[in-house]
Each structure stands twice: as structure tokens, then as C-alpha cells.
Design goal:
The protein is mainly α. It contains five helices and two strands. Helices cover 49% and strands 3% of the residues. The chain has a two-stranded antiparallel sheet. The longest helix has 23 residues. The radius of gyration is 18 Å and the shape is elongated.
Length: 133
């Protein structure tokens, strides 16, 4: 039975999921695996924070957001979006980037088979393939 899309974890939600799993493992004395999951959660959290701070030129931001570079430039000039660049060479941080409704704001993990058939290595591979960095 396949889970509905809205029930699937997002990349942003994985650290919390991994921490919950680590807590459960620890209850059963599986300390090494619990620690490994917590470290993975920490690393992914740091990567996600770094990604949110990534800045884009107006042309790059246009591809990410679905809005035109001209429109994004106006939003920066009008102060509706902070300029993460310098005067005359605006840049927009990913965290401040508006998105059109049809442009997904967060990547989803690849379709999974049943949860018990998915290894941690497969989850990490899915994250790598979706390009979270």
C-alpha cells in the first residue's frame, strides 16, 4: 500500500524524524545506531541552514522561483525582498525567495517502497539524488 504524498517526509523534516527514531532505538539499547542517526540529523540540519543562506543572482532566482528576473529585481528595489548582494548587483537568499504556487518550495524524497524495505543508505542516496545542496 502506498502512502499519500502529503504523508511522506520532506528533506526539511528528516532531522526530526531521525531524532525520533534515535530515541526509539535508544530505548531498546541500540546506542550506536541511535548516535549515528543523531549525527546524520545534525549534519542535515547544518546543510539545510547553509542552503537557506545560499544566494542567487536575479536570473538564478528567477529559475528557482518561477517569477521573472525583472519582477524579482523590482521586489528587491522596493525593499520587499532583502538584497543579499550589493547595490547594482542584487542577490536573493533562498530563504527570502518567493515562489509561484506551481514551483515546489521543498523537495520531496523519492518514492519509497514500504518503510521496512528502505535502508538508511537508500534514504541518504535519495537525498543526494534530489540535490538538497
Amino acid at each position: 500500500m502506498r502512502r499519500r504524498t502529503k504523508d511522506r517526509p520532506t528533506v526539511e523534516g528528516l532531522p526530526a524524524t531521525w531524532r525520533r527514531r534515535a530515541k526509539g532505538l535508544r530505548r531498546y539499547g541500540v546506542e550506536t545506531s541511535a548516535t549515528a542517526l543523531e549525527r546524520c540529523a545534525e549534519e542535515l540540519d547544518a546543510t539545510l541552514v547553509q542552503r537557506e543562506e545560499t544566494t542567487y543572482s536575479l536570473v538564478e532566482a528567477s529559475r528557482e522561483s518561477g517569477y521573472s528576473a525583472d519582477h524579482l529585481g523590482r521586489l528587491v528595489r522596493d525593499g520587499k525582498i532583502p538584497n543579499a548582494g550589493r547595490p547594482g548587483a542584487p542577490r536573493i537568499a533562498l530563504k527570502d525567495l518567493p515562489r509561484k504556487a506551481h514551483v515546489p518550495a521543498e523537495p520531496r524524497l523519492a518514492d519509497e517502497p514500504r518503510r521496512r524495505d528502505v535502508s538508511n543508505a537508500q534514504i541518504v542516496q535519495s537525498i543526494i539524488e534530489k540535490g538538497i545542496e
